[in-house]
Amino acid sequence: MKKSIVVLISGSGSNFQAILDHCQQGSINGQIVAVISNRDDAFGLKRAEMAGIPSHFIDHKAFEGRYEFDQSLIDLIDQYQPDLIVLAGFMRILSAKFVRHYQARLFNIHPSLLPRYKGLNTHQRVLEAGDPEHGCSVHFVTEELDGGPLVIQAKTDVNTADTIESLQNRVHALEHQIYPLAVSWFCDDRLQHSPEGVLLDGKLLPASGFLLEN
Fold first, then answer.
1. Distance CA 142, CA 150 (A)
2. How much is the average pLDDT of 137-144?
3. Domains parsed from the chain with CATH numbers
4. Exposed, middle or buried: residue 153 (CB in 10 Å: 0-12, 13-18, 19+)?
5. Residue 214: band (very low, low, confident or very high) from pLDDT cuts 50, 70, 90
6. Active site includes 123?
7. Burial level of 89, CB count in 10 A (0-12/13-18/19+)?
8. Spatial CB neighbours of 36, under 8 Å, sequence gap ≥ 6
9. Quick one: which of 56, 157, 158, 191 is 20 to 30 A from 78 by CA?
């Protein structure tokens, strides 16, 4: 039986599209049942509409605070009874209540090799630090910002001629590889979030997660 997936976005939805493509190709044993955005101009909503997937806009500015917005988000998501919630460029810090409600079934992708460079402007920070490598990480979401247990990472070398844009483009390409892979593991019941860490096929992954070799 296919797992049901709800995707949260704030922008173009390129990672949503990558996951959707794999669902449609059959390499993910899952189905995206809804896409939700906190921005009405998010192109990802257009992607959902073109794919015939229910899409919703919830304006976070229409609520008194983060907790009220998150409760409205929970109420909407729970109508779909998803097995997995995927944050795909959802630019909101979620409350502890939200995270606990979806514990062990909430994914995020971050454009850095966590635990390095949590937060924003990761490509710029990598260049300023002179790091030799950069990449992206998929992790289970916990109450610590960008601090949940790592599932998978992918790396790219940083070249002397790199710019923020060139790094961003290469990291995006890696994101489109590792996010569908992590989702496929979850939908195949190969992945588990345990008190000891992340298990893949019953074996404990290192703290850095699975490393995708290119």
1. 11
2. 96
3. 3-212 (3.40.50.170)
4. buried
5. low
6. no
7. buried
8. 6, 7, 8, 9, 55, 56, 57, 58, 73, 76, 77
9. 191
Q: What percent of the chain has pLDDT over 90?
A: 97
pLDDT single digits (tens) 76-98: 999 999 999 999 999 999 999 99
pTM score, two decimals? 0.97
Angular region, 103: left φ>0, alpha ψ -120 to 50, beta rest: beta
Number of Cβ atoms within 10 Å of the Cβ of 195: 4
SS (H, E, C) the chain: CCEEEEEEECCCCHHHHHHHHHHHHCCCCEEEEEEEECCCCCHHHHHHHHHCCCEEECCHHHCCCHHHHHHHHHHHHHCCCCCEEEECCCCCCCCHHHHHHCCCCEEEEECCCCCCCCCCCHHHHHHHHCCCEEEEEEEECCCCCCCCCEEEEEEEECCCCCCHHHHHHHHHHHHHHHHHHHHHHHHCCCEEEECCEEEECCEECCCCCEEECC
